[in-house]
Specification:
By secondary structure, the protein is mainly alpha-helical. The protein contains 9 helices and 2 strands.
Length: 264
């Protein structure tokens, strides 16, 4: 027994840090980063949080998977900067004028702050998605006492967006192979998303139905179902859970206190 334990400990020591951190700890880390971004309104602090989230993602060697999500959100943030810079309700200080179009400091700062928050959420979510698998999350959540039906619903919601993005890529590649939906400019890329939506939704729903039928055939609803144990050996689970949960509660209370103080 002592020899097998030493072998397990030695294998854990050679694994990356993300493999010895349980999924709930990773999820709480992502949640705390997102809550931190909403607790502060200073742009420099928001930029620092984006940098921290980016470093965590790069250290986990999962940076490439977040590139497409960042590219997609960058267009949204750029549009937000233009709209808020022009039409923000608290605009007073003129920052720059381009061909008679005036951009104000207050609107640009507000849009930049919101954009940093979006980046923090995307980077934190990408870290969780790319460092944990569906099977790992499912096994661990069942082990901590969550119902397997609730686990299935939660995992389906968490992983439906990556699944839809993968399906969209396949549909677009199939359309290009047939000589349609050619994308040369940014405007054409934006317009090409609309024709993809209908087959994308149909394909995603079809995959969900096939998955549901396969689970039923494998006895997913069986009352004698046995929970599989995870082969991973995690470190300091309860300490991480309690510490990060306490931090999340403090951040939520702090934000509620800030909101409530405005009405006093």
């Amino acid at each position: 027994m002592n020899g097998s334990n030493s072998i397990l400990q030695g294998s854990v020591a050679h694994r990356g840090w993300t493999s010895v951190v349980d999924p709930v700890t990773k999820l709480l880390m992502a949640l705390d980063l997102a809550l931190l971004s909403f607790c502060f309104t200073n742009l420099l602090v928001e930029i620092a949080l984006v940098f921290v989230a980016l470093v965590i993602l790069l250290i986990s060697k999962a940076g490439k998977s977040a590139v497409h999500a960042i590219e997609f959100s960058s267009f949204l943030i750029f549009t937000m900067l233009i709209i808020q810079g022009l039409f923000y309700s608290h605009n007073q200080t003129l920052l720059v004028s381009v061909v008679g179009i005036r951009f104000y400091q207050e609107g640009l700062l507000y849009a930049a702050t919101m954009g940093c928050r979006i980046f923090v959420i995307i980077l934190a979510t990408s870290f969780f998605m790319t460092t944990t698998t569906v099977s790992e999350n499912s096994k661990y959540l069942e082990q901590v006492g969550l119902s397997y039906k609730a686990v299935y619903v939660l995992m389906s919601v968490c992983y439906i967006l990556p699944e839809m993005m993968a399906n969209m890529k396949k549909i677009q590649m199939a359309q290009r192979a047939r000589g349609i939906n050619q994308q040369k400019t940014i405007l054409e890329k934006i317009k090409s998303i609309l024709p993809v939506l209908v087959p994308l939704v149909i394909k995603t729903l079809d995959q969900s139905m096939e998955r549901s039928i396969a689970l039923r055939l494998r006895g997913f609803n069986s009352p004698h179902r046995v929970t599989l144990k995870s082969a991973n050996l995690y470190r300091h689970e309860m300490v991480n859970h309690r510490g990060l949960s306490l931090l999340a509660i403090i951040l939520i209370g702090w934000k509620l206190w800030i909101i409530g103080s405005k009405f006093i």
